[in-house]
């Protein structure tokens, strides 16, 4: 029997003591070019997230499961159903799981380790799933299997393409329906079409059909990846506003967020036979100490909201870069589907009722609406979010200079703020939101490199990768996205002075800077490696001299865009009026 760990990249070592209160030492890299020199290999103290003991995580998860379980949930289906887990590796608020249970008398959960996810990125050949995210995924699967077992089920894990294996599993178990959450990007949509085609080749025996007219197993796709349900939007996805603020204000005023689904106390039984025909349950290595998964996600929510009471100051701390608690750190579990965005909404509202409602509690929802927005944009703009010109189809001359990209990727640009962020990414699979904006701006504005190089590298490295948010953010940062504002520039000196004034962050990831005076750590001169390019705007006071900050310029650009649209509307209205008069 093939062990699942043998399928994942093995080039990195990751912390094995996440549930200890102590920090851990870590020497690893998601980059094959990360050289073993005194400046590249070092020990760094990594903060565990969540910083709870195993017992605390278990208690927090048990409490959440209890709140979202009910003995009153009814089951009225017949036969066998399959729930196909994809990017929804959780039990709490999993509508596909609930509908599969309700629509059957026996339920089989399955997950496919699709080899395409461990191949290379489309353009530049990076690993599609780097070692750190692969390990996090393994941890999520182990946790999902554990939680399903505790509720009377198990998880069938198979290596291969879903379209090749799922039809034979449906045939072996006589499953009338395969339930799964719907995706929005082209690769995932293509797999859905191939699965449907494969299921159409399976003929169900008469007694195993949920409906006398149903000859083949069917694929039932369910929406469940966003905080706002797609059916509750005040517009079709194809008519989604191109400016985030317009989208946010519209959904906040015209839509409501659905409550989390209640689950039955028990999800049993499993199908009674046919397991031998599909080669057993599949193996998940038992010798690892797991970090990812639904229980850890629920533990982090408990820790951030209730134990440490950090959500009350989220808006003030969210632009930090160092440590575990300046931001929520929910994104890796949202990315793997181990955590429901609606569950987070419910926790915010529960916190506001029990303790405090302020700008910070709202801002958690503000960021979740951004996540929804990128998901819906992927429906409106399709594959254009992956194209060089982006949704706006802009023609821009970009470079693919290998040496410049390697310096950015490896954290050897000569700019400590860039290098520290890239070191953190390669060593942990995470980077702050502020850091992501800064390194994106540097790659596209200062290095003038093809933004897709950065997007594909992030795809390879990030624990919280999902195609909609990743490519949505990169097109936005590169000025080729749907938003009319472009040419955003993050001045490295200004960002360093504002967000790392004493050089704590850069000296943490670049220990060679620690001996320098704090005010020089971000501006080390000849005490650090040579800068690969001059900055686009060397003068950090350029915005003050022109009397405009970057934020004000963005506001003016947006105002200008709105004025243009108003004029367009007036012209169109007058034209129609003239036609009517004629």
Automatic annotation (TrEMBL):
<dbReference type="InterPro" id="IPR036134">
    <property type="entry name" value="Crypto/Photolyase_FAD-like_sf"/>
</dbReference>
<dbReference type="InterPro" id="IPR006050">
    <property type="entry name" value="DNA_photolyase_N"/>
</dbReference>
<feature type="domain" description="Photolyase/cryptochrome alpha/beta">
    <location>
        <begin position="79"/>
        <end position="215"/>
    </location>
</feature>
<dbReference type="InterPro" id="IPR005101">
    <property type="entry name" value="Cryptochr/Photolyase_FAD-bd"/>
</dbReference>
<feature type="site" description="Electron transfer via tryptophanyl radical">
    <location>
        <position position="474"/>
    </location>
</feature>
<feature type="site" description="Electron transfer via tryptophanyl radical">
    <location>
        <position position="398"/>
    </location>
</feature>
<dbReference type="Pfam" id="PF03441">
    <property type="entry name" value="FAD_binding_7"/>
</dbReference>
<comment type="function">
    <text>May have a photoreceptor function.</text>
</comment>
<feature type="binding site">
    <location>
        <position position="314"/>
    </location>
    <ligand>
        <name>FAD</name>
    </ligand>
</feature>
<dbReference type="GO" id="GO:0071949">
    <property type="term" value="F:FAD binding"/>
</dbReference>
<comment type="similarity">
    <text>Belongs to the DNA photolyase class-1 family.</text>
</comment>
<dbReference type="InterPro" id="IPR014729">
    <property type="entry name" value="Rossmann-like_a/b/a_fold"/>
</dbReference>
<dbReference type="GO" id="GO:0000719">
    <property type="term" value="P:photoreactive repair"/>
</dbReference>
<feature type="binding site">
    <location>
        <begin position="367"/>
        <end position="374"/>
    </location>
    <ligand>
        <name>FAD</name>
    </ligand>
</feature>
<keyword id="KW-0274">FAD</keyword>
<dbReference type="InterPro" id="IPR036155">
    <property type="entry name" value="Crypto/Photolyase_N_sf"/>
</dbReference>
<feature type="site" description="Electron transfer via tryptophanyl radical">
    <location>
        <position position="451"/>
    </location>
</feature>
<dbReference type="GO" id="GO:0003904">
    <property type="term" value="F:deoxyribodipyrimidine photo-lyase activity"/>
</dbReference>
<keyword id="KW-0285">Flavoprotein</keyword>
<feature type="binding site">
    <location>
        <begin position="464"/>
        <end position="466"/>
    </location>
    <ligand>
        <name>FAD</name>
    </ligand>
</feature>
<keyword id="KW-0157">Chromophore</keyword>
<feature type="binding site">
    <location>
        <begin position="327"/>
        <end position="331"/>
    </location>
    <ligand>
        <name>FAD</name>
    </ligand>
</feature>
<dbReference type="Pfam" id="PF00875">
    <property type="entry name" value="DNA_photolyase"/>
</dbReference>
<dbReference type="InterPro" id="IPR002081">
    <property type="entry name" value="Cryptochrome/DNA_photolyase_1"/>
</dbReference>
<dbReference type="InterPro" id="IPR014133">
    <property type="entry name" value="Cry_DASH"/>
</dbReference>
<dbReference type="GO" id="GO:0003677">
    <property type="term" value="F:DNA binding"/>
</dbReference>
<protein>
    <recommendedName>
        <fullName>Cryptochrome DASH</fullName>
    </recommendedName>
</protein>
